[in-house]
Design a protein that fits this description.
The complex is a heterodimer.
Chain A lengths: L3 E6 L3 H13 L3 E7 L7 H4 L14 H19 L4 H4 L1 E10 L15 E5 L2 H4 L7 E10 L1 H14 L3 E4 L6 H4 L4 E4 L5 H4 L6 E11 L5 E5 L5 E4 L4 E4 L3 E2 L8 H14 L7 E12 L4 E9 L2 E9 L5 H28 L1
Parallel strand pairs in A: 1-2, 1-7, 2-6, 3-9, 7-15
Antiparallel strand pairs in A: 3-5, 4-5, 8-11, 8-12, 8-13, 9-10, 10-11, 14-15
Helix pairs in contact in A: 1-6, 1-10, 3-10
Chain B lengths: L1 E5 L3 H14 L7 E6 L7 H4 L14 H17 L5 H4 L1 E10 L13 E5 L2 H5 L6 E10 L1 H14 L3 E4 L5 H6 L4 E4 L15 E11 L6 E5 L10 E4 L4 E4 L3 E2 L8 H14 L7 E12 L4 E9 L2 E9 L5 H22 L9
Parallel strand pairs in B: 1-2, 1-7, 2-6, 3-9, 7-15
Antiparallel strand pairs in B: 3-5, 4-5, 8-11, 8-12, 8-13, 9-10, 10-11, 14-15
Helix pairs in contact in B: 1-6, 1-9, 3-9
The chains are: A alpha/beta, B alpha/beta.
Chain lengths: 338, 345
């Protein structure tokens, strides 16, 4: 069978992960990744990249579990290997603390991170405003390193990269047999998904090399994530807010709240500020459909809408999307025989 | 009263601090002087990784466990202030790894969140069968010692770069009490057959992606004779060796090779780390810490000495508890000399 042409739209962590999965698993496909923005200008680049268990409504738990577990296992292997610094993937231990809420419910998928346990009273003493917390070890995946690392692997597997803004699936229907849509927030216009909305996040990068643990408030708005060369502190979760400019009020709020949790931050030098728009959606859209474009029926596999969990779920959803692409191929083969 | 502290490592400086804290308003005037042949950044305390962890078992030395705990609790209390960064104190978690079943350590209730490693975690360390995870403290000598010196200088403590040849020398120049914090070279002032150097060598590397300390233990080879990797605030300290009786402060190539190979096996990503340099130091090893008062009679004069040395590889770990105990012993001398608070009857 002649080479099947696959287009992957989007060069964020989901786009590249999906492209690599396909290129590595399906050598008889020629895969081209197309995107307007590449690292360091993607949403993924600014994200701290800490892996968090998360659950969404309307998706079977087993499937979500695989999304998380596959991603975690994949990245853990990198973190444990000599590639860790180049790929920007490291182990990170720390605490998730809560001011309120039911303390006795163990979060779903907590067994998928490492060493999950409740914090002791002694540990909670450092956070007098908080009632309980979890301690565990997870992974941090820094996309400013990870995306170039993925791109290397993609090209090695025969993948091609094209810098181009894709305005409609139509544009691609003549040149490609299967389209994989990893356009994140762009899916709103690319495929007209009105359920996608931005969740604005602002973060600061500070110089605080003495900080070795992550600390995150259960409300999701205050967090400290030590990375390889700097510490990312944040954040904000402003729904339907499209502003990409830095908000000074947000900066002050972040500094104040984070310094409350970690007093030594008051002495940290601020290196930069960044704003990104999480591709919010009720749940990630990982499914396939057949779209009629210019008289052709083109299989499209969607993999977008990961909200603040792009890094967390990229590899797992990419594997899922790969399965869907395989199904498309299978159907194409059957049709070709008719 | 004049107090002469000999030694400007973490023990000497922190003892000076505790004496000042507890007695400057009781004894007036209280003059504290620190004499040493070397100061930060050239002391043994400076070269150490600065990781708080006692030896695994105290073998009945409950006082040492108490002093270790006091030090830990004190340093943790410092964390709530932004000043902690100027002190070089911060939290760091990590792994103690073993190739056999071992008992829980003396410090399990002192450190934060002590637990045994899960099976999944053990898979991360091939060759090791079990271990522990906990959050402990870092206290970096190169930052802590300058902070202590600054603290002392602000309160009028004077420093003298001088090698003291005898206690008598200081007594004759007017010191009322001598605090002997001379570490591994204490034997030069007063022979001590129990004191020996425990030579250590470390490699400092640039590997900022590492955020956990990892200490391996070989119960046969002994403490610190097994690979360890301890990230600091800027560089990572890789070790280790523990050579009893070896006085050499020169870096040794064979030690370097063994240390480096052991560490890279433990943490493969280290192969990409830039090596900054090696350092060798002599741990002041003794079967137990010498922390006691001694009244020396010499040619008709009485010399009051408080010994505070022999902290092996746990000087930074135990310093505060010992300093406070030394200050307490000092208090005994103060009372004896009738210089105590006037309310005594």
């Amino acid at each position: 069978m002649k080479s099947v042409r696959v287009a992957v739209v989007g060069a964020g962590v989901v786009g590249f992960s999906t492209a690599v999965c396909i290129a590595q698993a399906l050598p008889y496909c020629s895969v081209t990744l197309l995107a307007e923005k590449f690292s360091p200008d993607t949403t993924s680049d600014g994200a701290a990249g800490i892996l968090w268990p998360v659950t969404f409504p309307d998706i079977p738990l087993e499937r979500q579990r695989s999304w998380f577990k596959d991603s975690f296992d994949h990245l853990l292997a990198i973190a444990q290997s000599q590639h860790s610094p180049e790929a920007g993937v490291i182990l990170s231990s720390g605490w998730k603390i809560f001011k309120e809420g039911p303390a006795n419910i163990k979060p779903l998928f907590s067994e998928l991170v490492i060493g999950f346990r409740y914090m002791t009273d002694n540990e909670m003493k450092r956070f007098p405003d908080h009632k309980f917390g979890y301690a565990f070890t997870t992974l941090k995946c820094e996309c400013s390193s990870y995306l170039p690392w993925l791109e290397k692997r993609f090209r090695k597997a025969g993948g091609q990269v094209e810098k181009r803004k894709v305005n409609s699936l139509q544009e691609l229907s003549n040149s490609y047999d299967i389209i994989v849509n990893c356009s994140g927030l762009g899916a709103k216009t690319l495929v007209g998904d009105s359920e996608v909305y931005p969740v604005r996040g602002q973060v600061l990068k500070v110089e605080a090399p003495w900080l070795k643990h992550f600390i995150r408030d259960g409300d999701g708005k205050t967090y400290i994530f030590p990375g390889i060369h700097s510490v990312t502190i944040g954040g904000t979760r402003q729904e339907d807010d499209w502003r990409l400019n830095v908000d000074e009020g947000d900066t002050q709020g972040i500094l104040e709240r984070c310094s409350q949790l970690e007093p030594s931050l008051r002495k940290a030098k601020v290196l930069s500020e960044w704003v990104g728009l999480r591709p919010g959606r009720k749940h990630p859209r990982v499914e396939r459909e057949v779209v009629h474009l210019q008289g052709r029926s083109v299989p499209v596999v969607h993999n977008y809408g990961h909200g603040g969990w792009g890094v967390t779920l990229a590899w797992g959803t990419a594997q899922d999307a790969l399965g869907l692409v395989s199904q498309c191929l299978h159907e194409m083969k059957l049709q070709a025989k008719l | 009263m004049r107090v002469a502290v000999i030694g400007a490592g973490v023990i000497g400086l922190s003892t000076a601090q505790s004496i000042y804290e507890q007695y400057h308003s009781i004894v007036s005037p209280l003059t504290i002087e620190v004499y040493a042949d070397c100061f930060t950044p050239l002391t043994t305390s400076d070269g150490a990784a600065g990781f708080w962890q006692p030896y695994l078992y105290d073998n009945g030395k409950v006082e040492e466990t108490k002093w270790n705990k006091e030090t830990f609790d004190y340093l943790v209390s410092c964390l709530s202030s932004p000043e902690s960064i100027k002190m070089g104190v911060f939290l760091q978690s990590g792994y103690n790894l073993f190739k056999e079943q071992v008992q829980d350590p003396s410090f399990k209730d002192t450190v934060l969140g002590f637990r045994h490693l899960t099976e999944r975690e053990m898979q991360m360390f091939p060759g090791y069968t079990n271990g522990w995870f906990n959050t402990a403290l870092m206290i970096e000598g190169k930052t802590y010692l300058p902070w202590l010196m600054d603290w002392l200088k602000k309160r009028g403590v004077k420093f003298y770069q001088r090698k003291i040849e005898s206690f008598k020398e200081l007594a004759e120049s007017g010191a009322d009490v001598i605090i002997n914090c001379t570490g591994v070279r204490s034997g030069a002032l007063q022979p001590d057959l129990e004191l020996e150097p425990g030579r250590g060598q470390i490699v400092k590397v640039d590997a900022p992606w590492l955020k956990h300390w990892i200490l391996t233990h070989d119960m046969k080879a002994g403490t610190y004779n097994s690979p360890y990797i301890i990230p600091g605030s800027r560089l990572v300290t890789v070790g280790g060796v523990f050579q009893l009786g070896n006085w050499s402060e020169q870096n040794n190539s064979i030690d370097h090779k063994n240390i480096w190979e052991g560490a890279c096996e433990l943490e493969p990503s280290l192969q990409h780390a830039r090596i900054v340099g090696d350092w060798s130091g002599l741990r002041p090893v003794r079967n137990k810490v010498r922390l006691e008062r001694e009244t020396i009679q010499s040619e008709g004069t009485t010399i009051e000495v408080i010994h505070n040395y022999g902290h092996g590889g746990f000087g930074l770990t135990i310093h505060r508890g010992c300093a406070m105990e030394a200050a307490r012993l000092f208090g005994g001398i103060v009372e004896q000399k009738g210089q105590g608070p006037k309310a005594r009857l």
